[in-house]
Amino acid sequence: MNLDLLSRQLIDRFQHGMPLCAEPYKEMARILGCRVGQVMACLEEMDQAGTLSRIGPVFEHSRAGASTLAALAVPAERLQQVAEHVSQYPEVNHNYAREHFYNLWFVLTGPDRQHIERVLEQLEKDTGLMPLDLPMLTAYRIDLGFALGESS
């Protein structure tokens, strides 16, 4: 995909941190020397094209409560149905299919570990499938980013 200059500038400049202020998109526009409408239209175009998957914060999970990586071994014919059901839980950040015995993976967050355990138990009751619970033992911060170059 060929990205235009504003798209490249937005990705290069803000993939590792948006302005922390009341009007972040307005501040992004000021920094890039354009109008906020241009920023919003560009982000919308990238979202619609599938170039942009998410705009949002990444929290240090241990400061915001509890979380776990979980997985289910779902029969192929039930995968879509179970994935849609799992996504209805407000504690589920996202879920995705993998080619493995455990083929549906998701991240659960909640105020404490007991809450996470209750959600996992409810998911087991709802689906008839036993979740694999993989809480983080050691955090590794990988600052993944992609410089697109020539963005100024």
Automatic annotation (TrEMBL):
Top-rank taxon: Bacteria
MF terms (GO), sorted A to Z: DNA binding; lyase activity
Key words, A-Z: DNA-binding, Lyase
Enzyme superclass (EC): lyase
Family note: Belongs to the Ahb/Nir family.
Function statement: Involved in heme d1 biosynthesis. Catalyzes the decarboxylation of siroheme into didecarboxysiroheme.
Phylogenetic lineage: Bacteria, Pseudomonadati, Pseudomonadota, Gammaproteobacteria, Pseudomonadales
Sequence ranges assigned to domain Siroheme decarboxylase AsnC-like ligand binding in this UniProt record: 66-133
Binding partners and assembly: Probably forms a complex composed of NirD, NirL, NirG and NirH. All proteins are required for the total conversion of siroheme to didecarboxysiroheme.
EC number annotated for this UniProt entry: 4.1.1.111
Reactions catalysed according to its record: siroheme + 2 H(+) = 12,18-didecarboxysiroheme + 2 CO2
Residue ranges of domain Siroheme decarboxylase NirL-like HTH in the record: 8-51
Pathway membership: Porphyrin-containing compound metabolism
Protein name listed in UniProt: siroheme decarboxylase
